[in-house]
Design brief:
Blueprint: E1 4-8, H1 16-26, E2 31-34, H2 40-46, E3 51-54, H3 74-79, E4 84-87, H4 90-93, H5 99-111, E5 115-120, H6 124-128, H7 131-145, E6 155-160, H8 174-192, E7 195-200, H9 209-213, E8 220-223, H10 230-241
Parallel strand pairs: 1-2, 1-8, 2-3, 3-4, 4-5, 5-6, 6-7, 7-8
Helix pairs in contact: 1-10, 7-8
The protein binds phosphoenolpyruvate.
Phosphoenolpyruvate binds near residues 161 and 225.
Length: about 240
């Protein structure tokens, strides 16, 4: 089965010039790129094969826009052809984004026909209490984050990203990431009749991706740091395409 590869550039690279170089190098079929907002339109213009997405959207989407300084709405993203949006990333949750806000964003993305990529994952403290505790935490996050999802939504992408694995070089094991992927799929299928693709994210690189890719319940990857490193991401794409 083909694995999905989503690149979360976070707040990188520093200049539009560098962003365009990175985008051209990453431009391949089945690759999803999520650059910073400011580069979206320019990168969209140079991409030939990859799908472009945003790293966030605002939780209000009034028909005629609104007084929300600094915010970017789903309608704006849709108007420039944005196909997906990363929501609930732990780095945004750490900035104060709550499950209530995330659930509004998920609903707006779905209503706007932008595919949400919902990020969930436990802290190190929770994981230290054992995988069952982590599974309970993730189940609760999903319940809260999809609480406003339209009933018509039957498919979804979830990224399981344990917080302690993000940007630390300390990745989860393929076995427990796979166990969590099964758990997430079962919750969404049993309780919401949603068929989910589950990605793993957390210090994925060209050295460890092949082991994760052997797990049939892991449908792909959300790659942060390594996706903004041109040489490293090119190698990752090559590995994924050879599977
Ligand atoms: C991420 O930002 O979603 C992520 C998984 O980061 P990294 O790959 O750097 O751990």
């Amino acid at each position: 089965m083909k694995k999905l590869l989503i690149a979360n550039w976070k707040m990188k690279p520093k200049t539009l010039k560098e962003a365009i170089v990175l985008a051209k190098l990453s431009d391949d079929k089945d690759i999803y790129l999520a650059p910073p907002y400011i580069f979206l339109q320019s990168i969209k213009n140079v991409l030939k094969k990859a799908t472009i997405g945003a790293q966030d959207l605002f939780q209000e989407n009034p028909p005629k826009g609104g007084a929300f300084t600094g915010a970017v709405s789903a309608a704006m993203l849709k108007s420039i052809g944005i196909g997906f949006v990363i929501l609930g990333h732990s780095e945004r949750r750490a900035l104060g984004e709550t499950d209530v806000i995330i659930s509004k964003k998920i609903a707006i993305a779905c209503e706007s026909k932008i595919t949400p990529v919902l990020c969930v994952g436990e802290s190190e403290g929770i994981r230290k209490k054992g995988i069952e505790e982590a599974m309970r935490f993730v189940a609760e996050q999903i319940k809260n984050d999809v609480s406003s999802i339209p009933k018509t939504v039957k498919k979804m992408i979830v990224a399981y990203e344990p917080i302690w694995a993000i940007g630390t070089g300390n990745n989860d094991t393929p076995e427990s990431a796979s166990q969590m992927a099964r758990h997430i799929k079962k919750i969404l299928s049993d309780q919401y009749s949603i068929k989910a693709k589950v990605l793993y994210g957390g210090s994925v690189n060209s050295k460890n991706i092949s082991e994760f890719a052997k797990e049939s319940d892991i449908d792909g990857f959300l790659v942060g740091g390594a996706s903004a490193d041109p040489k490293e991401f090119k190698t990752i794409i090559k590995i994924i395409k050879s599977i």
